[in-house]
Amino acid sequence: MHKICSKLIPALFLIFAAIVFSVLLPVTASANHSWGGYHWARTSNPFNLKLGDNLSSVWDPILSTTSTDWSKSTVLDTTIVPGGTKARNCRATSGRVEVCNSKYGNNGWLGLAQIWVNSNLHIVQGVTKVNDTYFNTTAYNNTAWRNLVMCQEVGHTLGLDHQDENFNNANLGSCMDYTNNPGTNQHPNQHDYDELELIYAHLDSTTTLSQTLLNPGQGNFDNPTEWGRLVKKQGRVAVFERDFGLGNKLFTFVIYAD
Question: What is the pTM of this model?
Answer without folding.
Answer: 0.85
